[in-house]
Amino acid sequence: MSTHIRLSAFVAALSIAATLAPAPALAQFGGLINKAKDKVAQKGADQANEKMAPVAPGEQLTDELLGKVVTGAAAADRVLADRDKVQTSREARNKELSALTEKNQPVHEAYNTANSKILDCRHASFNSLEEARREKIDAAIKGRQADPAFMGKMQLIAMKYGKAIADAQQKNDPVAMQKVQSDMMKEVLGTDVFADMKKDTVATDAKCGKVPAMPAALLQEEMLNKAVSIADDSIRTLEAAAVNVGARASGLEQIRYLQLKERALSIMNRMAGQGAVVKYGDDEMAAVRKRQSELEKLKRAL
């Protein structure tokens, strides 16, 4: 009996509060309730859609395959640790370069004004020579594409230089990489592009004169610019090496390794409520969940 009285009093109090509450407050309260209902309804709809949806296409992860992915990612992660060191150094150099470039604006303007004729001539010369070289390369490519055996020849060339490129990437050797690329392009196009660019410089020097000596402040800027460029090359090389090292350590073909580690990362994101609603197999979800803490530590390599 006493319980019934208390409930009746509570309901009556709510009724009085509702009567006394300002209309805007009631409207706001009602809006919040409706939003909460909509959110619950949407969540229920998403869950229903996920249950009805087919499993995401692609090879599903097993405990064994995930173990291979983890082994590969661990090996790749060690390479990416070196990448991150280079990245940190690169960002510091780039920050220094930005500050110096801003400081050097008056020096740039004075230098460009004093040497505008030579610089404009060189710019026009290089553009003209580059356009002619591009037309020559396009003509060479079209000529080779007309050959019925073109694709087969390209595959042979790719196989011929593939190992040398991988070795240069693994050793982080930009000089070796440039030589391999130069040799491969020469065989594909019938011309040495890098040698042609050097010839363009010689021709431009003869036509326009050499670039005037730079002030010390601009030389410092050039050195920093080159350091940033070298760092960019090193970062790309290390990232490519991480893929190669990871695939070899996993014992999987590179494409398969990349697809499986991408799937593992997608499942991790799905568990965290991130990304699109995609359904994965129960077994692979369980496999990832079991090794989730280990995978989190290797996330930059996934």
Distance separating the two termini:
65 Å
Largest sheet: none
The proportion of residues in beta strands is under 5%
Number of helices: 12
Helix content: over 70%
User: H/E series, N to C?
Assistant: HHHHHHHHHHHH
Number of strands: 0
Output the radius of gyration.
32 Å
Main structural class: mainly alpha
Quaternary state of the chains: single chain
Low-confidence stretches: 1-21
Mean pLDDT: 83
Please tell me the total number of domains: 2
User: What sort of overall outline do the alpha carbons produce when their principal axes are compared?
Assistant: extended
Task: Summarize the helices and strands and which ones pair or pack.
Blueprint: H1 2-20, H2 23-52, H3 63-103, H4 105-114, H5 116-145, H6 150-170, H7 174-189, H8 193-208, H9 216-250, H10 254-271, H11 282-290, H12 292-297
Tell me what the structure shows.
The protein starts with a helix and ends in a 5-residue tail after the last helix. With 302 residues, the chain is mainly alpha-helical. The chain folds into two domains: 143 residues, no CATH class; 96 residues, no CATH class.
Fill in the keyword field for this structure:
302 residues, 83% helix, mainly alpha, disordered N terminus, 0% strand, 12 helices, 2 domains
